[in-house]
Each structure stands twice: as C-alpha cells, then as structure tokens.
Amino acid sequence: MPDNEPGEITELLQLWRQGDEAALRALMPVVYKELRRLAHYYLRSERPDHTLQSTELVHEAYLRLVGKEAVPQNRAHFIAVASRLMRQILVDYARSRAASKRAGGCRIALENADALAIHGDVELLALDSALNDLSRIDERQGKIVEMKFFGGLSAPEISQALGISRATVDRDWATARVWLHRQMSRTAEA
Prior knowledge:
- By secondary structure, the protein is mostly helical.
- The chain has one domain.
- It contains 8 helices and no strands.
- Helix 1 (5-17) crosses helix 2 and helix 6 crosses helix 8 (166-189).
- The longest helix is centred in the middle third of the chain and has 27 residues, at 75-101.
- The chain is globular, with a radius of gyration of 17 Å.
C-alpha cells in the first residue's frame, strides 16, 4: 500500500464528514483497496476450501459500512469498524455452515503465535464466543484483539485508534491472548 493512503483515507473521511460528496466519490476506490487488503488478511487464515471469496467479503463489508450512519473519523477508526463488520460477516457465515453440519470440537494454539490461528468455522465460532466474553470483562482488550486479529492493525495503529500507549496495547494483547487460550482450551475439552 502506498505511504500516502493512510493520510489520504483520513483526509477524505474528514471531508466526507463535513458533507463533501466529491470526497465520498474519491474515497470509495481507496477504501475498496483497504477492504480488499483486510479481506485477504482474514481469508488467509481460513481453511483452504472456504467458499466465501474475498470479493464477496469486501462487497458485504462495503454495503454494511455505507449503511452505517456514523462516518469513521480516520483510517485507524475505519479499520476498526471494517474489522468488526468482517468479523461479523465471517462469524455469521461460519454459524450458518456449522448449523448445517453440526460439527464439534475446536482447538486453537495461542502460546507462540503473534496472531491467533484459526482453522475452520468451529474455531472461528469459538473465538467469537470467547472474544465476546472477553469484551464483557475488559472491553479494551476485546477491541485490541479484534483490531489486531481481524483488522491486521499493528500495535502503534491500535494505540492511535484507541488513544492509549503502545505499552498498554502490548500488555493488554499479551493478557488477552493468555485469557483467550485458557477459554478456548476449556471449550475444546468440553
């Protein structure tokens, strides 16, 4: 991605928020590129035979983004919103597949991973459930996991999006990984 795109997205989002329709037209191709990057990031950790294609994920996320009343404030906020939407789309898709298959059991290794490793619909559903539980306990940690895993954001980008220090992001990410690993291990044993 060219270096000017993060600033370009933020600038265009701000102009759009001020009512500039030309900014919205200019924003769409740039946002589409960012959504494709996110979709590729998401789907590379999915199973190889996943039937949802990146183009479908991008289009669904785009439709949901356009339908939202609140315009993201900057690139990091945009990524956070898009990450949440793509997570919802993938979880909805996994739920519908799991409902038709009624598969069971899951196992996710988090100990040595910098990002969560998901291999299948059941694991995605288990992660979603654990992440929802984590968000109820510690909303900030839930947002950090979502932005890092589902959005592919770096610690500095998450720091900027949430308005917290990089050290806090790193500490919360480490804590959340341990918590999620423990929760997911319990789910796998059940």
